[in-house]
């Protein structure tokens, strides 16, 4: 086994892609969801399996896969080599046709704006609490920009949308509870309101019992393709990647991941 340490952004993608090209059957990553996302960019469409040693802020993908958060226990799981296939999402920038894979979710609007304003030092010091601090302070001055979604031939206006491949968002919030890693479709949560207090109320409900399905400001749609246009930032798996217009599709290749 060869150990490689990253020294700059996106280097994990290059390392993973090179390992897969050189015939590695398993590629292991020790890191958080952002680093894992980089590795996925290099492994998507190859025959290599992904092994995860969780060392991040929230470790959302590791939790969704049922992986132990203890490093030694996670390494033992990796050594046993049992695996499952998951379907990835693909975010495609419609201005330049550049695409990025995601395993958990894409977020448009408020959450991407929060990710953009999180201070790296605060994130390093207090972990995912940095997102809560940034989110609450950002919400106080947030000015939503409505954008448009095209899903299954219907048009939706939104100020936030989560395009989920996994049921839980950020490890704590059930935003897209019917999304599944091993299914070739998204669950999309669309929120239309521009009222900050309604957002706080929805956040509270999502933390306690999941995003409400009887609220007229919230809609859920199952689909394999979303087209989003307007003026709003976009994040995938907790990392800011740009702004609309983008489309979101189920990637043509699945990924084999080592699990307990």
Q: What can you see in these coordinates?
A:
The protein has helices at residues 11-21, 33-43, 60-64, 71-80, 110-117, 120-126, 129-141, 196-208, and strands at residues 26-31, 49-54, 83-93, 99-102, 105-109, 147-151, 154-158, 160-164, 186-191, 218-223, 225-229, 233-236, 239-243, 246-258. With 260 residues, it is an alpha+beta fold. The protein has two domains: 11-87, Probable inorganic polyphosphate/atp-NAD kinase, domain 1 (Rossmann fold, 3-Layer(aba) Sandwich); 89-251, Tumour Suppressor Smad4, CATH 2.60.200. The strands form three sheets. A six-stranded antiparallel sheet has the order 4-3-14-11-6-7, with helices on one face. A hairpin with a 2-residue loop joins β12 (233-236) and β13. α1 packs parallel to α2 and α5 (110-117) crosses α7 (129-141).
Over the alpha carbons, how many angstroms does the gyration radius reach?
Answer: 18 Å
Count of strand segments: 14
Number of separate structural domains: 2
The third-level CATH topology of the largest domain is Tumour Suppressor Smad4
Query: What is the element string, with H for helices and E for strands?
Result: HEHEHHEEEHHHEEEEHEEEEE
Query: How far is it from the N-terminal to the C-terminal residue, by CA?
Result: 21 Å
| Largest sheet properties | 6 strands, antiparallel
Mean pLDDT: 87
How would you name the oligomeric state of the polypeptide chains in this document? single chain
Please tell me the CATH architecture of the largest domain by its name: Sandwich
Number of helices: 8
Q: Which structural class matches the secondary elements? A: alpha+beta
Low-confidence stretches: 122-127, 129-135
Shape: globular
CATH class of the largest domain: Mainly Beta
Query: What fraction of residues sit in β-strands?
Result: 25-35%
State the share of residues found in helices, binned by percent. Answer: 25-40%
User: How are strands sequenced across the largest beta sheet?
Assistant: 4-3-14-11-6-7
